[in-house]
Every structure is written in C-alpha cells, then in structure tokens.
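Reviewer 2 asked us to include a model.

Predict the structure of this chain.
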Amino acid sequence: MKISADFTVVPDDFAKAAAPEYRAGGVPIISFPFYIDEVNPEAHYLHWTFTDPDSIPVCGFEWIHWTVANLPIDALMFDFNDSHALSIPPDFSRQMTAMIPEAVQGRNSSASKFLGRDNDPAVIMRYNGPQPPDKDHDYYLHVWATKEPLPGLNQGFWMNELLHKLRECGEAPDQGGMFVTGKA
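Predicted model (structure tokens):
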C-alpha cells in the first residue's frame, strides 16, 4: 500500500495557522486530503492513525491527532482507472459520520482528562490539526486495510483498542504510511 498527499508540509488550513472558521475550541479541525494507492484487492476496510512522535520530548507521549476504523473501501466510490484510486477528501473527518455511519472515529489526545479540554466531539473525537509548540514536527499517517471490519470498535474508541484489534484480526493487514511536517 502507498500513502501520499499533494504536499509534504501540512497546509495552513489544516494546521496551526488555520483560520478561526476552521477551528473548534482553538484547535484546527479540518482534516487534510490524502491518497491511498496499491491496496490489496482482497481488502474491504480501511483504518488509520495520525500521530506526532515529535511530541514525546514536549509532553511525554506521542500525541494522537486522528484515528479512524472500519471505513468500507466501497463507500469511497473509487475509480480503478484513476491514478489515485482512493482519495480521502479535505474535511473528511467532519463529514464522515454523516456520509458513512458504519465507519468510526476514535478519541484523540485532546480527550485526555489531564488537559481539561471541552468534551466537544468535534475536538476530542475527530481530526486535530498539527500545532507544534516548540519547532517543526514530523507527523505520521499510518493506514491499514483489512478484509473484514474490526469488531467492537465504537465511536470514541482509543487508539490502543484499534491496535489490539488489528493484531487480533486473524490476518496480516495491508499497510502503508507517510510522514508530513507541521510548521511551528
């Protein structure tokens, strides 16, 4: 599987410099577009995490920005003749629940009880854009594809639950990833 985007630095609309109308609770909430190519033809579901490993020296852990599970590939209505057959459009995080209700999004690090943030699902269970406080950070988008949906994951799952379900799914999921930079 190959994951790509039309950028290597996350554009302002999806990150720290996002306009006020692209934020909730001060957090950028418009997810960026990306492509998923060369997926195993036997796979029917997509799952992903978007995290910030460079946050470890800043806050002590890898910041979780976005998690998705059980997205049916068929729901994306892709074209096999397109060079980027599977395209995740901009703002997919906010639109996905209404468009594809069987797909679920998990909690991100804004849901931590240690942050004291608002419990608004738009902030704690959707995409949170990069906002590195100290210097540019490299963010990792990791995508998996499976033949079957992962059981037991509901809206608001935690990332560790997704990783456990991937390990327990009884197959070797197809997977790929990419790094992008978030500007400080």
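The beta strands are 2-4, 23-24, 27-28, 34-37, 45-52, 63-72, 86-88, 104-105, 137-146, 174-182. The chain has one domain: 2-182. We have added this to the supplementary material.
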